[in-house]
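Practice problem. Given the sequence and the SMILES for zinc ion, write out the predicted structure.
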Amino acid sequence: MLVLPKRDVLTVRVAKGQPLLCVLYLLLFHFFLFMFLWAYYQTIFGSHPGVPGEFYLSSDEVQRIESEDRSGEQQEILKEISRDKALPVYTRTYGGGIRYCHICKIIKPDRCHHCSVCDRCILKMDHHCPWVNNCVGYGNYKFFVLFLMYALLFCLYVAITTLPYFVQFWQDMQDSDAARFHILFLFLASIMFAISVTILFCMHIRLSLVNQSTLESFRSPIFRHGPDKEGFSRGSASGNFHDIFGSRKSHWFLPMFTSAGDGVNWPMQARDQDSDRLLDDDRDEDLSPGEESPSRDTQQFKKSIQAGTKYDSTSNDVVVPIEPNTGDRVQLVLEPGHIAGTT
Ligand SMILES: [Zn+2]
Ligand SMILES: [Zn+2]
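Answer key:
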């Protein structure tokens, strides 16, 4: 039989007439604890979806690249492979080339980065988190945000419920019951953790609403038109929120995977999808002799198309909203050298 010294026994004082309140305290305590541990478990052990097979280079393709000493030639081979496989790649390196991982031997999908700790490429890598000993990326970013949220709620709950005893501690200094020091430590520890988690949680909520990863907030992804921090934004906070938390409201706050997409294809603003595809500029360069290149006016007009404008590259039709509230539309027909036609 275990006998504790009297000074270490925590005395629980239940106020008369408040048993229901005590039950409520216990239920809420275990609810927040359970949700926190569930989200934490999912963040640690949640698996990252692998990079799809089409992004991997075959041994022959790797050999071709490694046999070339000049980076320019290597880039040409990578462009050829990307074009043949029609890979959905829109971002590029700072030098304008295709992003390639020499360790995994893959053409990196957009938002994918190689983690030197995990020693693999992670889809939509956010950062490597030592607190969960795992990368935070497309597969577990929702779990990570919920982990922060429930950690914050748990700390606040503990701080609020111990606050009356903390005040009582300072009002009755004569009573040196050891249990009072436990309450004091519990209150201060929960407040300190709550403050630090609040900062991190607010930062990731902001990033979620603008559809940025931590890496992208420090180093903007490069598109054909240059660096663009908001290149992957859906254009609205709610759209960006749904990208991570899904469309089913009942699942938003459960640590279950509901993120949209596949981690490889990213909805981008119309201008990017039509004028910013990585290989589009290569098509211009590959025009056969005598074939007319799109005029500068046409290219400039395409670039000037704002988000929300729909452009059909196959028919050269552009649908521009005139008054969003009335639903009126004007349809423009793009032709090399001039713009004509309205309906
Ligand atoms: Zn890699
Ligand atoms: Zn990692």
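Check your answer against the key. Residues 1-12, 280-343 have pLDDT under 50 and may be disordered.
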